[in-house]
Design brief:
six-stranded mixed beta sheet; 2 domains; DctP_fam; TRAP_DctP; 14 helices; D-Maltodextrin-Binding Protein, domain 2; alpha/beta; disordered N terminus; signal; about 45% helix; C4-dicarboxylate ABC transporter substrate-binding protein
Length: about 325
């Protein structure tokens, strides 16, 4: 799937050894992620390690590689394919298989309970998503969360889709989102994230969208004064290991790994939700106007236009399965 060669950053880990440990030694499970140690990705891996040691003492040694020590997320996926590392926490499911772009579609989720039904309920749709990942060589240990995404502006509250008319907004280069924001009347601009603060400061764009954690950590409240809780999308993350690593484990260890993964996944999701809620209050305390009376139904038509544009790549049945998950 991935044709570019391994970079030195990833290849360097080969010096740690690429063979799985012998029966008398702890099996090595090296897990990479690109976030700082303060991020929930790191605590997710650490919690998983603690739970796994409780369930299978001395059997598997988990080592985290944070801060993009081993390159970027694409390189982690390559590293797992080549057996250089065993696992990673990433958000590149759409890159692994375009059918998984269904998880990134705008307005596809009704609320947090719907997200849980799709990704954390052992439902038929979750099994389908997990199977797609496994077909591509990755075992999903858990689907995590970064939070629903909201819009910041200066002096322009977004209460309905029509309020985006003519707004120059930075949006990641995610095609379904670009389609949806154009349908909503905005002018989406896929700037690199590293340029976003200065672009807002200089008026190159006059709005952006991200989860509250990113808004706080990036200090966007210094250059924007209004936060509208549109919750128009949520991109999940995933804790994955290579299929080859998974298949090297006996059934008892697989059971222990999944139990530890489920416990740590639930902790990560709960902590992320609590943190994002608290951070909205923090942004209010910092002086941002919080707009909570958002008419989410007004965004539906534009979102559905983006779903239709991706129907051939994702599959109408999978879109419908995700959209309706949990409905009686």
């Amino acid at each position: 799937m991935f044709k570019k060669p391994l970079t030195l950053a990833v290849a360097a880990v080969i010096t740690l050894g690429t063979q799985y440990a012998t029966a008398q030694d702890a099996i090595k499970l090296r897990v990479a992620h690109s976030m700082p140690t303060s991020h929930s990705y790191q605590s997710w891996i650490e919690d998983f390690s603690v739970e796994l040691e409780r369930l299978a003492p001395g059997k598997i040694e988990v080592e985290a590689f944070p801060n993009a020590q081993l390159g970027n997320e694409t390189e982690y996926l390559e590293g797992m394919q080549f057996g250089v590392i065993e696992g990673a926490v990433v958000g590149r499911h759409g890159q692994i298989d375009q059918r998984l772009e269904v998880l990134n579609l705008p307005m596809i989720y009704r609320d947090a309970n719907h997200l849980d039904e799709v990704l954390r309920s052992d439902s038929e749709v979750q099994q389908t998503l997990d199977d797609i990942m496994y077909e591509n060589g990755y075992k999903v240990l858990g689907w995590g969360e970064l939070g629903f995404r909201d819009i910041t502006t200066s002096g322009v509250p977004i209460r309905k889709a029509q309020d985006l008319e003519g707004l120059d907004i930075r949006v990641p280069n995610v095609e379904p989102w670009l389609i949806a924001f154009r349908e909503w009347g905005a002018n989406p601009t896929p700037l690199d994230f590293s340029e976003l603060y200065s672009a807002l400061q200089q008026g190159v764009v006059n709005a952006q969208e991200n989860p509250p954690e990113v808004i706080v950590n990036s200090r966007f409240d210094e250059v924007q004064d209004t936060l509208s809780l549109t919750e128009h999308a949520s991109i999940p993350s995933e804790f994955i290991v290579s299929a080859r690593f998974w298949e090297s484990l006996d059934a008892d260890l697989q059971e222990a790994v999944m139990e530890a993964a489920t416990i740590s996944r639930d902790t990560q999701v709960e902590a992320t939700r609590e943190a994002n809620k608290a951070l909205v209050d923090e942004l209010s305390d910092r002086g941002m106007t919080i707009v909570s009376d958002v008419d989410r139904d007004s965004f539906r038509a534009g979102a559905e236009a983006s779903w239709a544009a991706y129907e051939d790549r994702i599959g109408a049945d999978l879109i419908e399965a995700v959209r309706t998950a949990g409905q009686d």
